[in-house]
Amino acid sequence: MFSPIEGRVRCSPFNLPEINPDRLKTAKALVEKAVQLRRVFSVQGPYPVIRAALQARGWVERRLPHPAPKPAGHCHGEEDGEDGDDSKDDNDRGVEEARGHDPDDMYDLMSRLVRNETTYFYWTTRRDEIDCRSLRKDQMTNHYAKSGTFTTKVGLCVNLRNLQWFDATNPDTFFPRCYRLGADDEKHAFIEDFRRTACTSLLQHIVERSDGEGREQVEEEKVEENLSQSEGIRVIYCTHTINCNTFSRMIDRALHVCQEFLNSLDHSDIDVTMETPPSLTEQQWVKFMHDYYLVVHEGVGIEGSGVYVERCQAMLNRLQVCPQLETDGLHNIWIIKPGAKSRGRGIMCMNRLEDILRLVDSDPSLIKDSKWVVQKYLERPLLVYATKFDLRQWFLVTDWNPLTVWFYRECYLRFSTQPYSTQTLASSVHLCNNSIQKHFQPSQWRHPEVPKDNMWSCSQFRAFLHAQGQGASWGALVVPGMQRAVVHALQTAQDLVEGRRGSFELYGADFMLGQDLRPWLLEINASPTMAPSTAVTARLCPAVQLDTLKVVLDRRADPGAYTGGFQLIYKQATVEVPQYMGVNLLVEGAPLRRPRLPPHRIPSETEDKPSSHRPSPGRRPSGKENQSRLRGNRFHKRDEEGGALWRQHTSPTLRLSQRMATERPLALHSEHQKGARCLGMSLSRNWPLCLVPRTLSHSLSTPCGILGGDTHPIHPIPHPRPAPGPCTARPFLPQSSLGPPRKAPTRSLPTLYGPIPALEVFGLRPSPLTEPLSGPNSGLRPWPPHTPVPPPLPQAGYGHL
Questions:
Q1: What DSSP assignment string belongs to 191-243?
Q2: Which helix (H) or strand (E) holds 143?
Q3: Which among 290, 529, 597, 698 is most buried, taking Cβ atoms within 10 Å?
Q4: Residue 141 contacts residue 124 (beta carbons within 8 Å)
Q5: pLDDT by residue (tens digit) across 298-344?
Q6: How far is CA 652 from CA 655, 661, 671, 679, 694, in A?
Q7: What are the boundaries of the region Disordered (predicted)?
Q8: How do residues 596-632 score in pLDDT, each as one tens digit?
């Protein structure tokens, strides 16, 4: 690859010829001005028009070193997906070499003076001649990187399937069905398409044979006979017939396959699974295809085919939803294109499935790279004097964001050398590339109005349409259809091409016209040939090159400059591309902290006592009440000072309950008295239920009912509202004061005596080994036997029972 920064052309100082001083002075002045204005260009390839046009504008050429010889078969204009022509490659290269040895040539002298300057404009044949990534912003080149996504056969085939994400247009309305035979899934899809097309072709054959009594078949046989005589080919027609039973079975299967296809279009086959057997087995398909070849390809007669015409016509009317039904024809011809070649090389037409698969499977390397492309051949194109043709249309892309497309007003037609017929698959009939047709002599049976050089300009074609009464169709149907197809193809590749400011590229699109003058896109070529091979191209090719410079140079300096034959047909709104930040991402923010619960507050004496035991504001407390209050104050003071008196008079379990006095209480029931004795307490069924804090319940494995309604007790009471009495739990506070239930902690409480056994506590009372607990800090106090339970306290706090 040539580097635009480091490329140098060096000559030996001992072999320099004598130079005229006056010419040298003039050359230096021109070079100094060109360098100051950044008008240094480099051209590589047979583009004398570009070189002369730039020199006339005051540009100076910096010669590039001759590229290394390409492998055999690599010629001018060869690019993946292009249609080049190398007819003038050697002649132009000889002109370059002769000019390089002329010491008195002013342009050669100026070129040597700028050999160490920077090139600001590149025009090359191949895109890989210049490294686009090493160019500066003020340098221009005539290629975009990765444009092969739509200029190759495989790329165009794949990317047009994504058109639904850019436009509502169906690609089947302007691009023939295409498959990559190297991909297994697409290979199976092609086999299904080939067989389904055989079914529709059979139906059309029956209908058309009955309507025209074989008129089309007779015309094609006549053309085939003339072609065979001119080429020395012997054609043998079969005179066998197919019996009625065999043909009836063929029609039924063809109708069934077409109906299944319509169901798939309506999504009526949504319930069909992969395990569902196919409608026809492989053996049935082999038999059907064999009979189809006999009927359509070999002209075998059919007994009583008229009775099936009505059913076939009804199905064809329903199949009008398929946009390519009219162009599919009868012979099921497909064109096979090797993706690695261009200029029509290696392209073949076939109409038998087994031949296509055998050809593709014979080259494992192409299968591995998915380079074989098979495309449905347009069997019913528009003909000019019974001769097939295609159109070469130029367009220019000057930017990819926003996508800017220029459409050239002129195009030209390329004819084949032989009359058109589907009875033969010869390249001289079906391939209109000039690189192929120039090797054939025009047929003597071809219409005399067809040009001998096999080319027409679009003005000549418009005159032909006007003579046919379709003069308005060119501007109303043909040109708009070609413009839409070009824009849609570019839209699908916009995200894949590496666009850059200052680059541009001229492309050549190949189209065919249907009998309804609807254009069909065949392929898009990079670096289209500019060789003046005929009188038509000798006029149009220089014109399109000059107009390209008007768009990319003149309009860049003056937005209102004349652009020649180019017309701006599409300019997309600018899409803001986010700046690339790399793979190192930074997340800013603050961590979420778990909220802390408020500190537990030990209830005061006033909050713990029931309202019935409080002295009224107007009454003096009695002596017993003062004594009890004084004793409680002494106990509370000792507890705050860390004394051991409180711990000496309480069991470990009650002390643990005291620390959790602010938590929601639980009603516990037990039938295991042995477990209660381990806690230093005794149980009595005559006692009312006592309450323990909620957190203590998590040391017990048995689920418990929570006052307040979190869960139900293990042994629910059958009566809906039982009266207070033994074995009945009452809360300290009303349910409204407890608030919503809280989620219990997942960890269990530590204990000094190991794991606590599962209990259902019905009543608690002090053990004989311990004293009754009194004072405001007591979390639990046992009730005397046969003492009624007081009502719930209305104020906050837990209080005493």
A1: HHHHHHHHHHHHHHHHHHHHHHTTHHHHHHHHHHHHHHHHHT--------EE-
A2: none
A3: 529
A4: yes
A5: 888 776 667 889 999 999 999 999 999 999 999 999 999 876 555 66
A6: 5, 14, 22, 8, 17
A7: 64-106, 593-653, 767-801
A8: 777 766 555 544 444 444 444 444 555 555 555 545 4
